Amino acid sequence: MKKYSIEDVRSSFSFSVPVQIRFSDIDGYMHVNNGVYFNYYEHARAAYLNQVCEWDIMKTGTVVANISIDYMVPVHLMDSLEVYVKCTHLGNTSFVLEQVLLGITERGAAKIFSQAIVTMVSVDMQTMKPVPVPAHYALKLLAE
């Protein structure tokens, strides 16, 4: 997984979505539980596919085939977060999204909290079998 700098993220990702940290996201160590990051990334992927690709998930769905998250800095309740998303590879039935959780700590410092790489597979919603990524979505994925 490519390690991004804050400048790389801000210059090479054109899509981001803010994430609200909920009190219930905080664990006994007083930071966001590692499992909650999956929810943040899922929310951003869904927004990306909806807003950038105008993906109709009722016809062609997407499922996660693989996800890898690198954790760099713990997230605390008063931090301010955004998840950045971009497509870095397009296959026949799959595509790869890179995601970065970037934000401002409660002390005012910009930080990359974590990074993820996600392999998505497009599926027919009736059969749940892989299908080629529809061309009109592929063009929008690659345009980013």
Report on the structure:
There is one protein chain. With 144 residues, the chain is of the alpha+beta class. Helix content is 22%, strand content 38%. It has 3 helices and 5 strands, in the order αβαββββα. The chain has helices at residues 6-12, 36-51, 135-143, and strands at 15-19, 60-71, 80-90, 94-104, 110-124. A 5-stranded antiparallel sheet has the order 1-3-4-5-2. The longest helix has 16 residues, at 36-51. The two termini are 19 Å apart. The mean pLDDT is 96.
Percent helix, as a range, is: 10-25%
The overall strand count is: 5
First-last Cα distance? 19 Å
Q: In terms of structural class, how would the helical and strand content be classed?
A: alpha+beta
- Residue runs with pLDDT of under 50 for 5 or more positions: none
Tell me the strand percentage band: 35-45%
User: Radius of gyration in whole Å, from Cα?
Assistant: 16 Å
Following the backbone from N to C, one meets helices and strands in this order, namely HEHEEEEH
Q: Give the strand order of the largest sheet, numbering strands 1, 2, ... along the chain.
A: 1-3-4-5-2
Q: What global shape is seen?
A: globular
